[in-house]
Write a structure and sequence with these properties.
about 170 residues; mainly alpha; two-stranded antiparallel sheet; 7 helices; 2 strands
C-alpha cells in the first residue's frame, strides 16, 4: 500500500476566464473577440452539462474527460453515449490525484487548464454534433485531425490505439 498523498482535483469556480488567451491564440485578431464569446459560452454551459452527466462541474477530472470525450468523438466522427462520461471523469480524477506535476500546480494554473480543457472539449463535441447534422467531409477531416492532435498533446496517447467505453479510457494495441 502506497503512502502517496492524493491531490484534490476540485477547483474553485474561476472568477474570470483565465486560459482564454490559449484558446483564442490561433484565431486572427479580428476573430478573437467573437472566439472569446463562443468559448465563454461553451465553458459556462459545461456546469449544467456536467450536472446532467452526473459529474462535478469544477473538477479537473471532469474537465479532462470533456477534452478526451470531445477528441474521441471528433476523431471517430460519432457522438459518444452519455454513460461513457462519468467513468471517464472518475478515471481522470484518479490519474490527476496521484500526479505530482498536478499536485505542484497553483489554483490559478489549474483554473487556466480547466478553461482550456473544457473549452476545447466542448468545442470539439459541439462541432462534431453540428457536422453530424450538416455533413461536410472537409469538416469531418479537420475534426478528426484536431481530435488526434489534442489527445496526443494532452494525454500523450495515440488516438488510433485508444478505446473509450462505459469502463473509461484504455490503450489498445
Amino acid at each position: 500500500m502506497s503512502n502517496q498523498k492524493l491531490s484534490d482535483t476540485t477547483i474553485a469556480k474561476p472568477a474570470d476566464m483565465v486560459g482564454m488567451d490559449v484558446l483564442v491564440a490561433g484565431y486572427q485578431d479580428e476573430q478573437k473577440a467573437e472566439a472569446r464569446k463562443t468559448f465563454t459560452r461553451m465553458i459556462e454551459m459545461f456546469e449544467s452539462l456536467a450536472e446532467k452527466l452526473g459529474v462535478d462541474a469544477y473538477d479537473m477530472g471532469s474537465a479532462s474527460a470533456a477534452l478526451i470525450a470531445g477528441c474521441y468523438a471528433a476523431y471517430h466522427n460519432r457522438e459518444l453515449p452519455a454513460e461513457y462520461f462519468k467513468p471517464l471523469a472518475r478515471q481522470m480524477k484518479i490519474v490527476l490525484a496521484v500526479d505530482p506535476k498536478f499536485a505542484g500546480m497553483s489554483m490559478t494554473e489549474k483554473q487556466s487548464m480547466y478553461h482550456i480543457l473544457v473549452g476545447a472539449g466542448v468545442f470539439l463535441t459541439m462541432a462534431q454534433m453540428e457536422n453530424m447534422k450538416n455533413k461536410n467531409p472537409q469538416v469531418a477531416a479537420q475534426l478528426k485531425e484536431a481530435g488526434k492532435e489534442f489527445l496526443s498533446k494532452f494525454a500523450q496517447m495515440d488516438i488510433r490505439h485508444v478505446k473509450l467505453d462505459e469502463n473509461g479510457l484504455r490503450e489498445i494495441k
